[in-house]
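Interim report to the steering committee. The following record documents the input for Reverse transcriptase domain-containing protein (1272 residues).
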Amino acid sequence: METYMLLWVLLKHTSVRIHGTSFRALKNQFSLPWCCTGDFNEIVRSSEYKGRCSRNDNQMQGFRNVIDDCEFIDLGYRGLPFTWCNNRKGDATTWLRLDRFMATNEWILHFHSAVVYHLDNTESDHKPIWLTTAPLQIQRTKRKLFRFEDMWRTESGCEETITKAWVPKVRGSPMVQVQEMLTRCGRDLTAWSRVHFGSITRKIREKKEELRKAEEQSISGRGHDQVLSLRQELNTLLCKEEKMWQQRSRALWLKDGDQNTKYFHSRATHRKRRNSLVVLRDGTGELVEDPHEIGNRFIRYYEDLFQAAPLEEVDQVLAGINPSVTAEMNTKLTRPYTESEVAVALKQMAPLKAPGPDGMPPAFYQSYWKVVGKEVVQAVLSSINSGTLPPSINHTFVALIPKVKNPEHVTEYRPISLCNVIYKLISKVLANRLKEVLPTVIAETQSAFVPGRLITDNVLIAFETLHHMHNQRQGRVGSMALKLDMSKAYDRVEWSFLRQVMLKMGFHSQWVSLMMECITTVSYSLLINGEPRGHITPSRGLRQGDPISPYLFLLCAEGLNGLLNKAAAQGEIHGVSLCRRGPKLTHLFFADDSLLFCRATQAECHKIQDLLNIYEKASGQQLNRSKTTLFFSHNTSQATQDDIKNILGVPSIRQYEKYLGLPSLVGKEKMACFSQIKDRVWSKVKGWKEKLLSQAGREILIKAVIQAIPTYTMNCFKLPVKLCKDIEAIMRRFWWGQKDQERKVHWISWTKLCQPKGNGGLGFRELQKFNIALLAKQFWRFMNCKNSLLFKVFSPKFFPNGNILEASLKTRGSFAWRSIMQAKSLILSGSSWRVGDGQKIPIKNANWLLDEGHRRVISPLPMFPHGSKVALLMRGSPLEWDVEKIRASFLPYDAEAILQIPISSSSPPDKLIWHATRDGKYSVRSGYHILLQEVQNTNPGSSRHGERDPLWKDIWSMCAPAKIRSFLWRACHESLPSKLGLSRRQIVDSPWCDNCGTGVEDCLHALWKCPAIECSWSTQHELAEIRKQEFGSFHDLVRQVGSHNRALLLEKFAAMCWLLWHKRNQTRLHLPSDDYTQICHRAETLIQEHARIHLKEHHQSPPNPKVSWQPPTSYKYKVNFDGAIFRESKEGGIGVVIRDQNGLVIATLSQRVKTCPSAEMIEARAAKRAIQFALEIGIFDAIFEGDSDLIIREISSPEAMHNVYGLVLEDAKALLHHFERYQFTHTRRSGNTVAHALARRALNIQNLCVWMEDVPPDIIPVLYSDFSSINS
């Protein structure tokens, strides 16, 4: 008989903190699944409060701690969101959610159908709450839908089944054949799974019982072979079970760790409970509980929603749209489709995204592409090229995802379309092409889904504009902002309107027809509690979940953009500008979110209303007035505000109203503005998750989920220091597994944990530094994206000369602008000048040299006045360094560094580049690491502090369970709770070892030197030599073990240490444990079982085959080039060989040059020299080949390069205009041996050597080797 505990509490007028001790005592006293309910007199997050005054965060944190310590999960509710009201009138009204049901994860797994209701009441200030655990009245699924299981991929039989089923057996188009083979695959895989898998849970249970009996037989002396075999089979089944529940839980962030099956199972259970449709409230307020009727209500609603309406005023909307698609763009869009485009589209899909009606996720195609790829590509290309799609591949399941926590109305569910992957391949290929032209054809006021534009662009513009309006106190006429929300924006798009907009914009009719084919062949079935219901054939709407839909919606929004631009041009509405020189903003778009600006007058208000009415009639869009808000400038009178609010029928904005998820205004109470970030972080690390996740799982959750929560906000705002520290405290507490009221020892400082793994840390982020690194990205965009709307709006006010580096902090700006300016010092420390014509670069006190650690000149230079530019060090036309002047004026160290800098023959302007990345563009990662490095450089610690120790890489790359890797890492840091460590922290009195009593117990003693464990290590013969050595620390011991390149030696050592530590703890607690003599054997078994499973899953790809040089086929000549670096002399070598179609040498070159120690720079100079050399000997038809993939890609790209060697490549591209035909290809070093040998040979020459129709004698053997490979 199972026992459960239910506790009712009343904490009225008392503190949760006072009663927290009682809760914790109950939790420690009983191990039963339990549920707790009552009036807790406290809330856990700011969204559970509605009133005039903000809630104290410290009070909420105390309640959160109790919930974490007791491992409670809130059971949620149905009904109104609050349970208590103070019943005061006007602004004094306060609503709180004080009453709730909470339960442990074990209780919920037993009563997964539990539902809490907030009931109505007129007698008390509290609402009654009611819990029912009756089974959910969900209609049983008539048939189980086929879903490809991720765990199938671990079995070879899966591929065999697919291969047998993947044979065309019907006539028809390639797409029809693929559909039939997919259906057959699903059927055969189901039958195969039923035989080979069955019930994983049942098999695990049976296998555990078999293992128990085998162990009993082994103990009685009947052999141990069966035990080892059964353990391997059980581990394989457990891995499959974990994959199964991971796929169902949708916890895609957890990619590696120990077995987290319990966590995945709980996630899947909570997800199913949250998404179950058990009750619906109709238009009259009555509850509908009949499952069949609930399904019918949803079907009727979406049939009406997807029904087209007659359009009006379309011509008026089209009149505002200017054609923007050129003939060249149409040629790009309609060019022949290729196989590579299909392959790229597939790679862009997440493997375990929810599949469509055919049940096949992207993982199926990605894993078995060699089996299905050929036919799939043919089917996709035939459908696109013919311009027709079979309606069957466009049938879509619609998953209804709750938009709010406790949905009761049809409109509170978001319809997400689950399309077949075979269709999504078509859609994604088209979307990838459309993205190429979007930056040109979509208005700059739209920041969503357009390559090169960021969501934060419009956030920053909106925030700055609202801040300007908030402080606008002068002028007779005020300004207003209207924040629009379109109801069911995607679902209401009229197909006819979309088609006419595309034609008016200038899209080719062939492209328009293809777009319309994608959206008009759609049909839907709604997934009601997992069962497809209905068959809806829409006549309007775009699918959320279709890759092409966001881009098509942008085209629709161009209609509203045209209306507003036309009205502004005619003077009917007037926008808002930050200053007199700045552009006037009338609107900002982010997909279906819109922010309109105009004067706060009734005339402009009526005009805006007229424009919106026209757009609604023409496009099918519908304004959601309940979510539309107004904001007025400070100089707008209250009477005018009231009149406009009455005209539009919408409320005015509150202080902390959100726009695109961020505050519209930030005042002095910054903690209150950003409090929801802390609430969200806490919700992700609740105590129950800590219990179910291994430490490796907690590490990944912190990195992939927790640290990502504040990232979006930190892109625009500098978070308060206290908030960052509070979030880091939550993460630390979660990581170290603190429970109850005990303060667990944080054995390693947070600063150390935030170091990269290669430096001995765990790679967690220091939020304050990461915040600055994110803001620096915005600063960098102001420096380099001068055609963006963001730059056009901010520049006139804050830096009229166009250079943000010269922006004055005295100019009054918003909190966002002040936040961005705090990143200026990081940009200055990580950037340096790329020398062009030298007109902008100061000789003194500027970064412009190439060597890392030697960016600035150190020579005294008394002859150069302050402000002298680098141009003074150049002469001639084209420009070159004035060598005599440089050697006479600078110290030799500086002079050599200057002369290494190449000068472009085109004399371009100087450019500030980011020297911490290879491409010269700022990245958040590099900025963050510079901030970490600055702290390390100022740290007075050891000289090795911050250096990369190869030991850490060895530890984290071990083929061992994550818990063992983590354990060994902790042991190397002396962060295990050894007696010495505990005594230093005054937790225990004596540091002496309990096992032997003869030595101080640190990690080295407890795991290696203790006499009590000597019998364990004596059986490990591979460590016999190491046992004879003395070590000062456990860290030194592990480094020595890792230096022995023996298979799995470090892994076995780590496993033995882990088992010894486990036995030490079991002995201390007087619990049973293995004998010391068995530990070595157990460690080897553990590692071998882990290696069998994981090496099979992560099989290594075969080594790349050796490549040999091949003569040109379609070109007359092949020019091979290579570069080499001679670091001792700070010089480089260039080698070039030109051969014809027969492999005969035309000319060879070997040249010695001054260069910086950069492989990319010497390779770029080699490419340029190869082009020059070909022109010098009269070759104009050639294929150029090198072994640097990066240089080949960059010289073949039409985009300008922003790195230090970019000007070299730009000069090389300019030379290519002299060629009749040319091409660049990449080869491996083995196919470029002659050029490589010539480059290395340059070390032995003075300057330049050229051989016509010949090679140097020492290169002849290398040349003959190429000849032999041609003939073989």
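The radius of gyration is 35 Å. The committee is asked to note this result when reviewing the revised timeline.
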